[in-house]
Design brief:
The chain is of the alpha+beta class. It has five helices and five strands. It is a multi-pass membrane protein.
Length: 162
């Protein structure tokens, strides 16, 4: 077996790369991806060029480190989209949403109905039930809103998510 592996280094690296990629698919969160890719590259080089085992091992190590570092730098530079940042934070997705007040403000506080829930809102200016507002910030479970001028023929009494 050892003689066969020594005679066919490209197949050894191909099998190692395949096994590492299969192990990666089992859930190692990216740790084996770059080692598997490096093994496949060494397999290609060993098939094309007559290089000995120690050089193949060094190439495998160098390619693994280089590919992992490049991947890390790419991830670091890549900007997360605003949608991805707020994926599991429903309240942050509400910034910019237009809604209609359910009741008059008392001491700056009132309520709005958004989707299937009712939210507490705060406004610096006194507002009346039926006024259309825009969410500008979130503080815990309180939405900070500003009044909007009526833009529809019914005085702005419509709920618009957007």
């Amino acid at each position: 077996m050892i003689e066969w592996i020594s005679a066919h280094p490209a197949l050894f690296w191909l099998c190692l790369g395949g096994l590492l990629l299969i192990a990666e698919m089992l859930g190692t969160a990216g740790y084996l991806l770059w080692s598997g890719m490096a093994a496949l590259c060494v397999s290609l080089l060993a098939w094309v060029l007559p290089i000995n085992w120690p050089i193949q091992g060094v190439l495998f190590a160098i390619l693994t480190v280089i590919s992992a570092v490049l991947w890390h730098l790419w991830l670091k530079r890549r900007k997360q989209s605003k949608e991805a940042e707020n994926l599991n934070q429903k309240s942050h997705q509400l910034i910019g949403v237009h809604a209609v007040l359910s009741s008059d403000t008392e001491n700056g506080f009132s309520r709005v109905k958004l989707a299937d829930g009712s939210w507490r809102v705060y406004s610096d200016t006194p507002l009346q039930a039926g006024d259309q507002v825009e969410v500008i910030a979130i503080d815990g479970i309180t939405l900070h809103v500003i009044p909007l001028k009526p833009t529809t023929s019914d005085g702005g009494n419509t709920l618009t998510n957007g």
